[in-house]
């Protein structure tokens, strides 16, 4: 994990993914599977999967937000074949259990909607007994990543690696014991302080829509062209 240092900005998620992949080459021989957190994590994970010649799949996870601040995560819920819920006790004290229950239900419905759109009849990549690399475009509070890690752990990977381009130093240090309890290895390219928001460390941090996520997943699922097929179209 990189220290505070001098923070830099990625051009976009493609560059972030390529930089991240360069730090993960030691895993190539393990024939890993790359798991992305939609939406933004998919664009980063596509680059990682391509560089490692690894299959790509997704972990569906959603924030459980506070009623008074939609950007504030009370916790998160993830589903990678097992529903896992993480609640931030410091924030949960300011909302009711009834609110958390309703919001969790709403986010589970959104997870099901995304499952139908992103996955549909696409075959899932087996995780059991394999090295799984969980990728997002950054960590803000850590709740979604913790929920995702715990959900993936129930799929029985041989090894579970967390890989992100950027995370706030104070949050990362605060939740690092929990992350390391769930992940066998944590890779973070930079952990600046002060932080602000993930988007501040990208020149292009546009919000991906469903169509872009599906396009990226479709492209990643296509096998690379073989030498024979390439020569067939050679001039």
Written overview of the protein:
It contains 8 helices and 8 strands; from the N terminus they run αβαββββααβαβαβαα. By secondary structure, the chain is of the alpha/beta class. It has a single domain, classed as 3-Layer(aba) Sandwich (Rossmann fold). The strands form 2 sheets. Strands 2-1-6-7-8 form a 5-stranded parallel sheet, sandwiched between helices. A 3-stranded antiparallel sheet has the order 3-4-5. α2 (40-52) packs parallel to α7 (210-221) and α4 packs across α7 (210-221). The protein is globular, with a radius of gyration of 18 Å. Residues 226-235 have low confidence and may be disordered.
Shape: globular
Strand content: 15-25%
Helical segment tally?
8
Report the CATH topology name. Rossmann fold
State the share of residues found in helices, binned by percent: 25-40%
Strand/helix succession: HEHEEEEHHEHEHEHH
Number of E-state strands: 8
Unreliable runs: 226-235
Instruction: Give the spatial strand order of the biggest sheet.
Output: 2-1-6-7-8
Question: Structural class, from secondary structure content?
Answer: alpha/beta
Termini separation comes to 47 Å
Roughly how many Å is the radius of gyration? 18 Å
Average pLDDT: 89
CATH architecture: 3-Layer(aba) Sandwich
Under CATH at level 1, the class stands as Alpha Beta
Sketch the major β-sheet.
Answer: 5 strands, parallel
Q: How many domains make up the 3D coordinates?
A: 1
